[in-house]
Amino acid sequence: MEILSAHACFGGQQLFCRHDSAQIGLPMRYALFVPPEAKGLLVYLAGLTCTEETFTIKAGAQRVAAELGLALLMPDTSPRGANVPGEAESWDFGVGAGFYLDASQAPWAQHWRMESYLTEELLPEVLVELDLPAERVGIFGHSMGGHGALTLALRHPQKFRSVSAFAPIAAPSQCAWGKKAFSGYLGADPAAWAAHDASALMAAQTCAPFAGSILIDQGMSDKFLLEMQLLPDVFEAACKQVGQDLTLRWHKGYDHGYYFIASFVEDHLRHHAAQLLS
User: Tens digits of per-residue pLDDT, 4-13?
Assistant: First the structure.
């Protein structure tokens, strides 16, 4: 990896990095917080329009991560510089909107391979770099990234031991954001959509997939909740169906932004530390 900048932070280092991705076929950027003593790794997936800098700068997570011994990995949200026609025409599709899946439809299939990039390339590379055990990895995210965290945890349970989310797109097959992204990246087959829909994936389980609880925080003044883009109740019903322990917390007055995330990020870090480091 190429370190673009390094900053002392709560006794550790906040790094901003770049590397050439074989999965994406382009250079990719990511942020990495290395605490004074790294004991586990927590992957954070950001939402639509965000970059590797958004959570890193706005969430205020490093202080508690340093205390707990959790390294934080913040990847970018999509390929950049692919020059695919139409890639920057919409804020909710294309650049900044990779949806953490591998596209199967042209022209996106060549570079929009965020699932394979994260699980097969970036995560193993960082674990080796930090000399951390693969069984101490958790994942969380916000909005589109909450969708990514839930679906990747369900699709790759051997890679992620703990999972949580802030205001996730919890049933993308049933909302406008998800239908647009899935149609463009995956085509018209509903079966292909279900394979990347957290609620559908959970409902298809034969038993609870996680020994520990899943934590989700949702603001009650979130305009996207009111617009039926998030649908946490659908995911909650799927968890009840298979006996998966879920803590879904509703917060009066909180919206979809990073003031909401900063208010509860400590709870998420401690949630993961309890499952990863025990």
Answer: 999 999 999 9
Q: Is 222 a catalytic residue?
A: yes
Active site residue 5: no
User: Do residues 154 and 198 lie in contact, with contact meaning Cβ atoms separated by under 8 Å?
Assistant: yes
Q: What is the pTM of this model?
A: 0.98
DSSP state string for 130-143: HT--TTSEEEEEET
- 67-104 pLDDT, tens digit per residue, is 999 999 999 999 999 999 999 999 999 999 999 999 99
Is 143 one of the catalytic residues? yes
Question: Rounded CA gap, 38 and 56, in Å?
Answer: 17
Given 76, 102, 217, 222, the catalytic residue:
222
3-state helix, strand, coil in the chain (%, to 5): 35, 25, 40
Terminal CA-CA length for the chain: 30
